[in-house]
Specification:
The chain is mainly alpha-helical and 166 residues long. 70% of the residues lie in helices and 0% in strands. The N and C termini lie far apart (57 Å).
Length: 166
């Protein structure tokens, strides 16, 4: 069952290239600087950044460390065909944390994972992601409420000692 491989190799390489260039530029690096940090020749780096070599795990992990991104977010993004996924997971390491949780489950439960059917796994993952989506909505609402709270200074009364302390 290979449900993720809905793109051909050329599309995956193109997605990888867009991600690598975006993160390099976001980190304020020229390609020659990134090549030096990756310990590659400039031309080799340019070919790598163009997606020529495809997904190379060690190289992506090294690159992600340099540009402060989630390496597994980059790898998953290539498979999803979504540059946005790499960007969205860069600061919170969501993809790497997913793998950490899966590894912990496997270590705790031993061979129990092999006894679970695909439907149960899919339902469990879906419920977990539904809970995360709900939490993200709650977080956004909490943040919005906090930003518009009268006590944050926008509507503070300068004559009120409680408002001046904030």
């Amino acid at each position: 069952m290979d449900v993720l491989r809905d793109q051909d190799a050329a599309a995956r390489r193109a997605t990888l290239s867009r991600i690598l260039k975006l993160f390099r530029k976001r980190a304020g690096l020229r390609s020659v600087e990134a090549a030096r940090l990756m310990k590659k020749g400039h031309r080799t780096y340019q070919r790598w950044e163009s997606g020529y070599y495809g997904v190379e795990l060690e190289e992506i992990h090294r690159f992600a460390e340099i540009v402060n991104a989630d390496p597994w977010g980059i790898i998953f993004a290539v498979e999803f065909g979504s540059v946005d996924f790499a960007v969205d997971t860069a600061n919170n390491n969501a993809a790497s944390l997913l793998l950490v949780a899966l590894r912990r489950f496997h270590r705790r439960s031993g061979q129990a994972i092999r006894q679970l059917d695909p439907r149960s796994l899919s339902l469990s993952y879906t419920r977990g992601f539904d809970l995360l989506a709900k939490r993200a909505e709650e977080y956004a609402a909490d943040l919005e409420q906090w930003m518009f709270d009268e006590g944050l200074g926008a509507n503070a009364d300068p004559d009120d000692p409680d408002d001046r302390r904030r």
